[in-house]
Structure formats: structure tokens, C-alpha cells
Amino acid sequence: MSTEFPHIPTPDAATHRAAEARHLELTKPPGSLGRLEELGVWVSACQGQCPPRPFARPRVVLFAGDHGITAQGVSAFPAEVTGQMVANFLAGGAAVNVMASVAGATVRVVDLGVDTDAELPEHVTAHKIRRSSGSIDREDALTDAEVDAAIAAGRALADEEVDGGADLLIAGEMGIGNTTPAAVLIAALSGSEPVAVVGRGTGIDDQTWMRKATAVRDALRRARRVSAHPVALLRTAGSADIAAMAAFLAQAAVRKTPVLLDGVVVGAAALVAEELAPGASEWWRAAHKSVEPAHALVLEQLNLTPILDLDLRLGEGTGALAALPLLSMATRVLGEMSTFADAGVSEGEVRLPATVDVNGRNGGWR
Ligand SMILES: O=C(O)c1ccc[n+]([C@@H]2O[C@H](COP(=O)([O-])O)[C@@H](O)[C@H]2O)c1
Ligand SMILES: Cc1cc2nc[nH]c2cc1C
């Protein structure tokens, strides 16, 4: 499979209009469910169906991989935690497992680049590219062949999930050190300086932060040369897991499947995905705003308003899972509420011109 993505269609405009019109018929003052209304309208437009169907198979794909930059001392945790957490995901003991269960989603764990000797099941390693990645402050993360294979893996994963019935996709990730390549990718694509993108990750102290800032500075010097070329950027400053995630997010759009985005690492992959497949972001909503400073740059650049702001910084898809019940509610409200006519409720006299935003917002949001 090539690294070229086809033209990305937009969610269906006629269905979008029908869903907005339906909201006006439902037994509530127009606009009174605030941003939940737009979320339901978006799901409807993605499905090309009004009223929208409730999600039948929300799915988390957890992209796991290690990062050579951890050798420079950029994380609060040792790299072996990535493989240990993969075992925890498979045993059902991680936050993502509990939160997915509460939200009605299922979880698939995929090892793209975990640096472990542990024997993992074939269904976990089937898309494995390599162990860890190059230390991006001094060498490329991946070879040309590896980045192409990682992109093919991400596309195949999205195809497999959509073909398997997934109607809402979430990319989660696990990888000690991965907030460093995420910061570099975001800085390269937003034209930001290292200090604006280097955060505390897993909870690093000031000395570790200084080492991380140096690593980001050096990696960014290498990354800026290729920032106009998304595949080369992933090869230079990404990793197998981030490259696969970017392709997964782009392919979800190709397959007209809505996506809830998680935190800063998924955000970095999303920024690259929008370069790989312009317009893909129309198929995504930002579930939350991570405490990592670079995440705000992602949301601004993609023009996405986060649903939640809960000071999360875990990853694993947990922020997306926290927002999933709200997205499900937004979908079912639009599908299942009674209309004024059906319920025999009198309509009011709210006749606002389309340009007036009764909720006091300035312009549209998504
Ligand atoms: O999703 C986020 O915004 C987020 C913010 C900080 C840390 N993380 C998670 O923490 C790990 C990376 O942190 P670090 O400090 O090792 O680079 C990785 O497994 C991520 O899933 C995730
Ligand atoms: C324990 C642990 C769990 C995680 N899940 C995602 N990133 C993580 C980082 C650590 C350190």
C-alpha cells in the first residue's frame, strides 16, 4: 500500500442540514443542549444519516512502541514500562480497560515497536515494525522502508476495524518517551520553539525537563528540514507507533468513520495526518485538552474545540473514552428525543436569524 492517500470527502452536508433542522424540532429550546447539539449533528453528517444511529461498536486501537530518545534521559519512567504496560492492557488492568468498559468500547492492543523480549500474542505483534526507534536528536527514527511499513500498518488497522464493524474509532498510545517526538512533530508543523512544546510528560523534574528541551531542540533542527514532507517528517522525528497512528487517523477519514482524538501524542499524529490527507480532520473531534502545552497548539492548528478539560495526561485513549459517553448522548438525543409535534408540546417564538448565536459564542466551533 502506498503512502499516498486519496481525496478526503467531507461529512455529508445535506445530512448536516437535516440534523440541524431536526434539532429545532426536538422538545427543548433551540440550542439549549449547547455543544452537545453540534456533536450530534457531526455524528449524523459522518454517518450520512439523520437521525443518527447509536454507536454499535466504538473501538480503541492502542498503538504501543518504544522510543530511542529515552536513552537521553527524557522520561520519569524507564523504557521497560512500555512492555510491562502492554501486558497490563492485555490482562485488562489498565485505565483504558476500565474506562472502555464503562463507556461501552472495546480495546485492541497493537505492538508497533515495543522493545521487549516478552512473547506477545500474534494478534498483538502482527503489525510490528521494529524494536524501539532511532534517537531522534542525532539520527532518524526509522528507515524509509520502516516508515512506509508503519503507514501501511496504520491504514490496514483502520481498514480492519471499519470492515469489522467499528463505527467510532479512538487511537490510544503507550510508549515511554513518546511525548518527546510528539513535541518535535508539533513544533515542526506549527513553527513553534522548543520551550513552547516541552511539557512534563509522565511527571519529569526540572533537570529531566532541561535534557528533554535539549533533545527537542536538536531533533527539531533535523526535523525542520523535512517539515514540508509528512512521510519524511515521520521517518526523521516520529516512530513506528506515531507513523502508524497518523495513517490510521487519515484512513479513518478515507473510510468515512468518525474519530475521537485523545491527548498530545495522538494530537501530534493527527497534525501529520492532516498533512498526509488534507481534510481528514473534518472526521475528528477533540475529546479533551491535555495538560501538555503542545496539545493546545494542535487544537488551535486543527481548529478543534476540546469537549473536556480535565487535566488529563495519561494517554492510552483515556481522554477520548472520558468523552465517549457525551458523544453517545449527543447522538442518541438527536435520534431518540420526541419532536414538539409528536409530544404535543407548544413551540415558542424563538425566531433568531442564523447569524445570532444565542449561546454567546463568537463564530462556529468544532
Ligand atoms: O496523552 C497525553 O496528553 C499524555 C501526556 C503525558 C504523558 N502521556 C503518556 O506518558 C507516556 C509518555 O510520557 P514521557 O514522559 O515518557 O514522554 C506515554 O505512554 C503517553 O501515553 C500522555
Ligand atoms: C505506568 C504508566 C502507564 C501509562 N499509560 C500511558 N502512559 C503511561 C506511562 C506510565 C509510566
TrEMBL record:
HAMAP family: CobT (MF_00230). The active site is at 316 (proton acceptor). Pathway: Nucleoside biosynthesis; alpha-ribazole biosynthesis; alpha-ribazole from 5,6-dimethylbenzimidazole: step 1/2. InterPro entries: Nict_dMeBzImd_PRibTrfase, Nict_dMeBzImd_PRibTrfase_bact, Nict_dMeBzImd_PRibTrfase_N, Nict_dMeBzImd_PRibTrfase_sf. This is Nicotinate-nucleotide--dimethylbenzimidazole phosphoribosyltransferase. It holds the Pfam family DBI_PRT. It comes from Actinokineospora auranticolor. The gene is cobT. One of its GO terms (biological process) is cobalamin biosynthetic process. Catalyzes the synthesis of alpha-ribazole-5'-phosphate from nicotinate mononucleotide (NAMN) and 5,6-dimethylbenzimidazole (DMB). Belongs to the CobT family. It is an enzyme of class 2 (transferase). It catalyses: 5,6-dimethylbenzimidazole + nicotinate beta-D-ribonucleotide = alpha-ribazole 5'-phosphate + nicotinate + H(+). Its EC number is 2.4.2.21. GO terms for molecular function: nicotinate-nucleotide-dimethylbenzimidazole phosphoribosyltransferase activity.
